[in-house]
Design goal:
The protein has 538 residues and is of the alpha/beta class. The protein contains 18 helices and 22 strands. Helix 1 packs parallel to helix 16 and helix 16 runs parallel beside helix 18. The longest helix has 22 residues.
């Protein structure tokens, strides 16, 4: 391929993760000339980058895989109810091979800018290595949590030991034996990596700024009989996912927390705590995430669990959140996480009583101590949802920068388009239900919808689609109003666009869609059936 001339395609897709791969497949089925650009040297997106020890699904494996191919469903056998990262990456490689996707993907190619040329109705992209390409349609498949952020701590680069961010984990195995390891961060990633590293590290120090309510994953291998039952039940599995708020297998209980007696409530919570997966979050009483008093009953239950499981009462108290309620931040799923703090080789350092002052050549200096380490693991999160858009210089119809347009928060129609950026479609974009979802289920919905839109335009011989300003304003207002009802809108987290490591992201602005996957799907279908109401075509 010529490295300098501009190649023209019908569609350019940025990203070869779960959404980019499926979008490529669907558009190729329409016979379109599609090119995918991907920074990594292979497919997989989040499962390519997040190779840290302990990385695994929090969704039931069989509810997470693609549903579009019966043959794929029947031939793939998940090993565990909650698959670990290596198996998931193997699965995505299998999909890429089976559907011969790689031949239309350019790897090791980062898109640096994307500009819409209104005179030619073309998106021009420039890639790393000077490569350029253009197409009438630009589809972003960037992933909502794909831009890792390091802490804003002085001296970060001076550390002479090994240092890794979980989201940029090396491909080769990392040995923790006999090493003094530090982990900074106790979100869903930190919890997974801590429970794994604690098994072999010489000594592990966990630096915690905010504890989270963590719930047991209750993972297990899938036995051959269950495997057969799963294969026979895919229709029901996906039907159930389609009916639930977050497209998980778990459906909210229709009762209010206070419809039952205290004893019944305790028994219900106990049952949820012992069940696999997100049932405790998604299948809880319908008001637990919206009513503070209801939420408090869960906070009390979860706090008691931590106290039961952690031997040292002072450490237990450090692990119990006091700044937010259960489920108002993403629930990290765990396997013996709390018991890690009963091990002799593990200590918990509360950054609220001794804040980190700097990182030195030898380790971490806090207000109270100087700690020496052989390795520091940063499980410090991501510039979520809009971060991957901000990294590309995206300019729309009149040269407007998308980053500038979204400074005070994203403005989109259905989380799939932003006015002034014609023919740019944002899979799992901000204010899209796919951001708050058992993600492949919502990705398939997003991709199918976008594919239908492109096909509809082709049939009508239309070449340009753009969300109207009015439709965008209405959707953005609806997204924000829906979020206000939820307790999580009062709490700092990546849901609310908060990243304390980024100066410009310390003001809450809701990034997701909280109205639920079924309502979102119905809305998308209704709009499509009404000749794509809210979109203007040429
Ligand atoms: P996160 O939830 O944003 O957590 C980052 C952690 O790092 C927090 O504990 C944060 O503390 C801490 N931190 C950040 N900067 C710090 C600093 N300067 N000093 C001290 N601590 C600092 O990120 P994540 O854990 O990577 O998870 C992100 C999302 O990825 C999850 O919510 C989930 O959606 C997804 N995920 C999914 C899976 C799965 O499906 N199995 C697994 C892992 C992650 P504060 O809370 O105080 O800011």
């Amino acid at each position: 391929m010529d490295a300098v001339s501009t190649h023209q395609y019908e569609v350019i897709i940025i990203g070869a993760g779960i959404s980019g791969m499926y979008q490529l497949h669907c558009l190729r089925e329409l016979g379109m000339n599609v090119r995918v650009f991907e920074t990594a040297d292979d497919v997989g997106g989040t499962w390519y980058w997040n190779r840290y020890p302990g990385a695994r699904f929090d969704s039931e494996s069989y509810s997470y895989g693609y549903s579009f191919s019966e043959e794929l469903l029947q031939e793939w056998e998940w090993e565990e109810h909650f698959s670990a990262q290596p198996e998931t990456l193997r699965y995505l490689n299998h999909v890429a091979d089976k559907f011969d996707l790689r031949k239309h993907i350019e790897f090791q190619t980062r898109i640096e800018s994307a500009r819409y040329d209104k005179t030619k109705n073309l998106w021009h992209v420039s890639c790393s290595q000077g490569r350029t390409a253009c197409a009438p349609f630009l589809i972003t498949a960037l992933g909502p949590i794909s831009v890792p952020t390091l802490p804003n701590i002085t001296g970060l680069d001076s550390f002479r030991g090994e240092a890794y961010h979980t989201g940029l984990w090396p491909h080769e195995p990392i040995d923790f034996r006999d090493k003094r390891v530090a982990v900074i961060g106790t979100g869903a990633t930190g919890v997974q990596v801590i429970q794994e590293v604690a098994k072999s590290a010489g000594h592990l120090s966990v630096f915690q700024r905010s504890p989270n309510y963590c719930a047991p994953l209750v993972n297990s291998p899938i036995d051959p009989q269950t495997q057969q039952e799963i294969k026979k039940s895919y229709t029901d599995i996906f039907k159930r996912c389609a009916e639930t708020h977050g497209a998980f297998l778990h459906k909210a209980d229709s009762r209010s927390t206070f419809d039952v007696t205290a004893e019944e409530r305790e028994a219900f919570y106990e049952k949820l705590y012992g069940q696999p997966g997100f049932g405790i979050w998604m299948g809880n009483f319908r008001d637990v995430l919206v009513d503070q008093q209801a939420n408090d009953t869960m906070n009390d239950f979860m706090a008691r669990k931590v106290r039961e499981r952690v031997d040292d009462p002072a450490v237990a108290e450090m692990l119990i959140p006091t700044d937010h309620g259960f489920g108002t931040r993403r629930i990290p799923m765990e396997t013996n996480y709390y018991e890690v703090y009963n091990q002799d080789n593990v200590r918990l350092i509360d950054l609220n009583s001794e804040a980190i002052e700097e990182i030195t050549t030898k380790g971490i200096v806090t207000e109270a101590n100087e700690y020496e380490f052989d390795m520091i693991i940063y499980a410090t999160g991501f510039d979520a949802v809009t971060g991957a858009f901000d990294k590309i210089d995206i300019r729309g119809e009149d040269g407007q920068k998308l980053k500038d347009k979204w400074t005070d928060g994203p403005k989109t129609y259905l989380g799939l388009q932003s006015a002034g950026f014609p023919n740019m479609l944002t899979l799992v974009g901000p204010h899209n239900a796919a951001t708050f979802c058992n993600i492949p289920r919502c990705i398939e919905q997003n991709v199918d919808w976008v594919t239908d839109l492109v096909s509809y335009m082709r049939d009508k011989k239309w070449v340009k689609v753009e969300a109207t300003q009015a439709a965008e304003e209405e959707w953005t207002a609806h997204v924000l109003t829906t979020a206000e009802k939820m307790l999580f809108s009062k709490v700092d987290s990546w849901f609310m666009g908060m990243n304390k490591n980024l100066a410009h992201k310390q003001k809450r602005r809701f990034l997701l869609y909280a109205g639920g996957a079924p309502a979102y799907r119905d809305k998308c279908n209704d709009i499509a059936a009404d000749h794509y109401r809210g979109f203007a075509f040429q």
